[in-house]
Model the fold of this input.
Amino acid sequence: MSIRCFRAHVVSRSLRRGSAVVSAAGCRDISFEPKSPAAGGAAARGSFIAAKERIIAYWQDECARDLDRLMTHFARDAEVITPDGVYRGREAIAALYRKSFDDFPGLPVDVKAGFVGRDAHCFEYSAVLSGGADNRWLVEGVNLIRLQGGLISGLRSFEDAPRRRLSD
Done:
């Protein structure tokens, strides 16, 4: 399992950016420090922190290819939207991830940035789906997540087209 994090940004209605304190120790060290108190507000900060913690735990379980643990991050009626389709409910979402796990048993993820929204938050990532030395695909994009009761109720993945990756 490999997850690395780099920086977090705050984006308010006026698109102001905040700063981040990140250590090389890992994802849980991403913190939210707005440049001004108006950049998102306390409610947005709290919501962002909860979303950040959930998406990091989600990616840790996805990288571990642990379907049972991965599914604990989703609300019962969650919806996942990928470039390939819309998946509603845990059964459909589990089938989506089961196929990915079967086709690509390896997955490192680099979390590049986090962006605060009003009702949802975005996390930029870079990942390599690996099904063997000659079957590696770089996927870069942004996941938009919504939480309900602390669980993912909506996850939409905006991705560039996967690119074949021959080596690290």
Observations:
- Strands lie at 2-5, 74-82, 85-88, 108-115, 121-130, 136-148, 151-159, 163-164.
- The CA atoms of residues 126 and 140 lie 4 Å apart.
- The domain at 2-164 is CATH 3.10.450.50 (Nuclear Transport Factor 2; Chain: A,).
- The chain has one domain: 2-164.
